[in-house]
Amino acid sequence: MAQSWLAKRTKALETSLIEQIFNLAATLEDKIDLSIGQPHFDVPQPIKEAACQAIAAGRNRYSQSEGIDELRCRLREKIRQEYLGDDREVMITCGSNGALTLSMLALIDPGDQVILFDPWFVVYDPLVRMVGGEPVYVDTYPSFRIDPDRVARAITPRTKMIIVNSPNNPTGVVAAEEEVRGLAELALQRGVLILSDEIYRDFCFGVPFSSPGQFNPYTLVVGGFSKTYGMPGWRLGYAHGPRSIIEQMIKVQQYTFVCPPHPLQWAALTALDTDVSQLIVETRRKCDAVVEGLAGYYEFVRPTGAFYAFLRVPWGTGSEFARYALQRYKLLVIPGRVFSNRDTHFRIAFTVDDRTLEEGIRVLRELAISPPST
Predict the structure, then answer these.
(1) What is the DSSP secondary structure assignment for residue 104, as one 8-state letter?
(2) Could you tell me the end-to-end alpha-carbon distance of the chain, in angstroms, rounded to an integer?
């Protein structure tokens, strides 16, 4: 009987495979877990102390729906130094996924088309579908580069938004300035909104970061504190863009999330003054270890950012490879079909302790040269 009450939108969704693997990992002993993309480091101590102080000081009631003024002002100062748009405004959200959800609810009507680059971050496609939008895919294999000409061919009169994610999850590719500029100018010419997911912007390894918001004042940007400061469980993000859009996203937040976690917003002020450059250097070292350890065993584009490498399977499909790796070695990786219309690759997250990473590389080498017997 209860099934008859479910909304049709829920039937179009599958339980996230990443969440299934996350739950499985919690039950496995002696596992090699390269599946989940979260920092290998904990929240720096000064930020923890600031959070505790905010709680002790009684900052535990609701904040303004848009976030505390002090944090918004600090972010606004940084944003206006880098991004175009005289009326650019910022709001604090419940994680970057909260910002993505608000943007879909505020901007996408049933029948609107949203362009996604294949492969895409796992939540984009379901969020678009949940609000009645239609995902339109632009293939980026094998280089995982943005081709504005391909995007132009995908734009129709129903196109409302293009979502771009750089540094990219799952590929680890950082879009070059000419790619980003070309996309930004195309969107401006065609009257299409760009949503730029920049949650990994601090994790660029030897290449510069570029945002479409540096070339297109109408870009909506999503960011957050989770990756840079080791606090994915704190659920603290932000969005900035044209005031008219942010005002509507704030309105939607009033009736959904209500407000971001109040005491943690005060801790975020301390985060903005915390030097995490050494943590980013450590992350790059882990990336280099993956590149050096797996070159010659797998085909992949060298990651230049984020937490991931996206490797082509040496045999079978991505799903078959991931299943065998789990059954034979207790190695957890994410099959490429989670992020793509293809199932030819798999994703690993290298933000784990060194021992786990070394063991993962050893097992992946063995998997490459010793496929299962038929």
Answers:
(1) H
(2) 45
A 10 A CB-CB count for 296 gives: 9
**Cα(150)–Cα(337) distance, rounded to whole angstroms?**
22
- Tell me the one-letter amino acid at 31: K
Q: What is the DSSP letter of 353?
A: -
Q: Rounded to the nearest 5°, which phi and psi values hold at 311?
A: -105, 140
Q: Where in the chain is the domain with CATH 3.40.640.10?
A: 59-271
Q: Specify whether the CB–CB gap between 170 and 205 falls below 8 A.
A: no
Report d(CA 105, CA 254) in Å as an integer.
12
CATH architecture of 59-271: 3-Layer(aba) Sandwich (3.40)
Return phi, psi of residue 357, to 5°. Answer: -65, -45
CATH 3.90.1150.10 residue window(s) in the chain = 2-43+276-369
Name the helix (H) or strand (E) containing 115.
strand 113-118
Q: Which two tokens stand for residue 241?
A: 């863009």
Q: How far apart are alpha carbons 116 and 121 in whole angstroms?
A: 9
> How many CA atoms does the CB half-sphere of 14 hold within 13 Å?
9
Q: In the CATH hierarchy, which top-level class contains the domain 2-43+276-369?
A: alpha beta
**Angstrom distance (rounded) from CA 338 to CA 78:** 34
pLDDT tens digits, 84-105: 999 999 999 999 999 999 999 9
Task: Kindly state the tokens that stand for 221.
Answer: 């940007």
Q: Which two tokens stand for residue 276?
A: 């995490």
Quickly list H helices, the chain.
Answer: 8-11, 17-27, 45-56, 69-82, 95-107, 124-130, 148-154, 177-190, 243-254, 262-271, 277-294, 318-329, 354-369
pLDDT at 288: 98
Is the full-model pTM beyond 0.90?
Answer: yes
Cβ atoms of 119 and 164 within 8 Å: the answer is no
Q: What average pLDDT values come out for the chain (374 residues) when binned by 10 residues?
A: 84 72 75 94 98 98 98 97 95 98 98 98 96 97 98 98 98 98 98 98 97 98 98 97 98 98 98 97 98 98 98 96 93 96 98 97 96 78
